[in-house]
Write a structure and sequence with these properties.
globular, alpha+beta, 4-stranded antiparallel sheet
Length: about 80
């Protein structure tokens, strides 16, 4: 199983293909100029930032459970974050 630790070391293009091949789509939110797709990769939640203006993926990051975006996710689903 691929983990965020492995995925994080890859270039963006490879991250994109790995997320789409190995992660499960959870939901999407709108956040400023982005549509953020949330995926579950093993036990890690991954955010994919899609810039619609340029029809591109700008970045892929590990979900930060302390970020203000969490309220958008928690309004719709219950996210179980792993204990570290």
């Amino acid at each position: 199983m691929i983990s965020w630790r492995h995925l994080n070391n890859l270039p963006l293009e490879k991250k994109i293909s790995m997320v789409y091949e190995h992660a499960a789509f959870v939901m999407a939110i709108r956040y400023y100029n982005y549509k953020i797709n949330l995926y579950l990769l093993g036990q890690d939640y991954i955010e994919v930032f899609v810039n619609h203006k340029y029809a591109s993926i700008d970045r892929i990051t590990l979900l930060d459970p302390h970020h203000s975006r969490m309220k958008f996710y928690s309004d719709q689903i219950k996210i179980a974050l792993p204990v570290k």
